[in-house]
Amino acid sequence: MIRETEFDIKTNFRDETVFTTGNGYMGMRGNFEEGYSGPADTTFNATYINGFYEEYDIVYPEGGYGFPRKGQAMLNVADAKIIIPFIDGERFDLLTGRIHAYERKLDMKRGILVRRITWESPSGKIVEAEIKRLVHFDRPHLAAVSFSLKPVNFDGFFEFVSRIDGRVSNLDESSDFRVGSGLKGRALFTVDKGVDGTGAWLEQRTERSGFFLSCAVEHDLVPGGDAVITGHQAEEELEIRFRVKAHKGVTCNLFKYISYFTSRDAGREDLVLLARREVSKAKEDGFAQLEAEQETFLEDFWKDADMVIEGDPAAQQGIRFSMFSLLQSAGRDGKTNVAAKGLTGEGYGGHYFWDSEIYMLPFFIYTRPDIAKALLMHRYRLLDAARERAGELGHRGALYPWRTIDGPECSAFFPAGTAQYHINADIVYAIKRYVEATGDEEFLYGYGAEIAFETARFWVDLGSYIPAKGGKFCINCVTGPDEYTALVDNNAYTNHMAKMNLEFAAKIADRMKRERPGDYRKLSQKINLQDEEVDEWRRAAENMYLPYSEELGIVPQDDGFLYKKRITVDMIPEKDFPLLLHWHYLNIYRHQICKQPDVLLLMFLLREKFTIEEIRRNYHYYEPVTTHDSSLSPPVFAALAAELGYHGEAYRYFIWSCRMDLDDYNGNTKDGIHAAAMGGAWLAAVYGFGGLRVYPDGLYFFPALPEKWRCLKFTLKYRGRRLRVMLEREKVFYTLEEGEPIKIRHFGSELLLKPGITVEGEIRRAGL
């Protein structure tokens, strides 16, 4: 439960993000149904459809070949959640009159947002209001609102004014370049509309992307026998008014059912019909049934995904909010992914990044692998666009865009965008992890192999064997995850991950030849793959240049990193953070300073390649120069600090990750959640404190509990099994809840788990 008991204008903008409701297809910010009359800079009203975007021109003062020319921005769509009550002619408005009682809560167990308010109008009429909103997980095109009023001290009249407002636009101005959408003015225009009794519908189109959208609503007023219902149409707005007698102590409830469909879902000719059918069916079923369906869906979700932390309510709330927000944000249709801000705000234009595969996908792989597969299918759907982008830059194979919605590169700043070629390997890493965890070879051979082969082609074409580097295979002029060091040679993260990509592609090619020769022949013909190419993948992987400093005993971030002036974070004035908003890039690039842990992330992902002492040395080298200006940074430090036994640091970084938005650590929650940090918080808890290591031969555990926690419980799905892990101070308990027996390793000792039987192990190192 996320709960607030006071209405505060100063936190309203942030709260609108926190109280967002979504289902992966649509997201509704936590705006008030009755509207908000506070200052303009304390609110942004929005509803988003995942993957529904408009194009815009990217303008460069000095352009260049291969620069993206068009951007994409997720659109703020028609606002259909509006219900404005009038009490004997006085508008229900929290900023007028007097609030006697107030509560708003996001119930993550039931999947519903609830407000309860006792409000007194300027003339002294008191009403008790309860407003519920849900965005339905099992009916992705449906949302519903229940708005009830009960007179406390009067008889009179209520009037509910319900609207669809098509006069919406995206946020186009911000001092933070990470926020603006790139769109100027409105992007959706009405082409048809109508009001019919208690229902209404609106059809709009985009100007450039060629998409259409339909929005339909239906209503049910209870009791409504004496209601006067009138409909009104304006150019871009539809309105239905319900006027009804109000009797002291008697509740009056307006139910509103809302549906959206876009031309990415169906043909334009069917959109209005589909939306109207959806709301009619919902009205027939009733709000109570929708609530029950929502709760049933979430009961199954939490059975697979819940994490219990005893002894630390802040951490418990934070991790559950993180997991619930990921569920609300993740596309489940194979056509969409998880935007950096989910479906909660304007940050980063609704684009998908590498965050999805590296930070968010593991949560779904080990709790809801069906969603993980859908997210990977989205990447397969964009493979042709990735091939085109590689060709545009003069390379073979495929290059995935740094940021996109529907395929083309949308990053206007190539040093921190296009040059982050590592996204190719990040996607293949996610495919590898998904297949290891699920055994889904049909996905691997039908889809994943093609991505692995085309990205391997790209790496071989991008890199070179350099005599001055001992003839090693080098990858020059790239940017790693740390965007404060750009266009470097032999970024360690990129080279290690490219090596993994090449090895995986060659291994899968060999397996397909042996086990699925027909499929291999078909795929080879489709992409014109020659046997000598696979040999070249092996050669490049075997000869990959992997930076290492014998003198320092660390992995240099890149060839030039150690030759720059080193400055530590404590040398930088607090007012200068984040650096990207206060320093010129040249001032950043010339120093040993990191936005996020480039080398440490590498060690976390490819844990089996490094010893604990290597991790310790690199942690101590990079931690003092990491600004954490990226929300992707704290979770990695949390996980590694836990393994290293750095008690306070592990917990501090973890709580920073899991409560980043609830406590607004970065002061920008108003622009949307930090979805990657939320996925990272799960990683930090399970891999850090839970001690999970997933190696090719199975699951390993090295658990240790934070000092203030009494217990940590979490669930993992692996190879058709569901495993429950429970940590206490001195002991850990493993229970196989579903599936065939499995062997795991606990501090190196092999344990055989059988269905329904709990196996106990001792914690062999000091608890954190």
Write the layout of secondary structure elements.
Elements: E1 2-4, H1 12-18, E2 21-22, E3 26-28, E4 47-57, E5 70-76, E6 79-87, E7 90-91, E8 98-107, E9 112-120, E10 126-135, E11 142-151, E12 156-165, E13 188-196, E14 199-206, E15 212-222, E16 228-233, E17 237-246, E18 252-262, H2 271-285, H3 287-305, E19 308-310, H4 313-329, H5 355-365, H6 369-381, H7 383-392, H8 423-438, H9 441-462, E20 464-466, E21 472-474, H10 492-515, H11 517-527, H12 531-542, E22 565-566, H13 585-589, E23 591-592, H14 598-605, H15 612-622, H16 633-644, H17 647-658, H18 675-689, E24 692-695, E25 698-701, E26 711-718, E27 721-727, E28 731-738, E29 742-746, E30 749-753, E31 758-762
Parallel strand pairs: 22-23, 25-29
Antiparallel strand pairs: 1-8, 2-3, 3-4, 4-5, 6-7, 6-12, 8-9, 9-10, 10-11, 11-18, 12-17, 13-14, 14-15, 15-18, 16-17, 19-26, 20-21, 24-25, 26-27, 27-28, 28-31, 29-30
Helix pairs in contact: 4-18, 5-6, 5-8, 5-18, 6-8, 6-9, 8-9, 8-10, 9-10, 9-11, 9-12, 10-11, 10-12, 10-14, 15-16, 16-17, 16-18, 17-18
Structural overview:
The protein is α+β, with helices and mostly antiparallel strands and 768 residues long. Helix content is 31%, strand content 26%. The chain contains 18 helices and 31 strands. The protein has a nine-stranded antiparallel sheet with strand order 1-8-9-10-11-18-15-14-13. The two termini are 27 Å apart.
Q: What is the helix fraction of residues, given as a range?
A: 25-40%
Are there runs of 5+ residues with pLDDT below 50, and where? none
The secondary structure category is alpha+beta
Mean pLDDT: 96
**Percent of sequence in beta strands:** 25-35%
- Count of strand segments: 31
In angstroms, what separates the terminal alpha carbons? Answer: 27 Å
The global form is globular
**Major sheet: order of its strands?**
1-8-9-10-11-18-15-14-13
Radius of gyration: 27 Å
Query: What profile does the largest beta sheet have?
Result: 9 strands, antiparallel
Tally the helices: 18
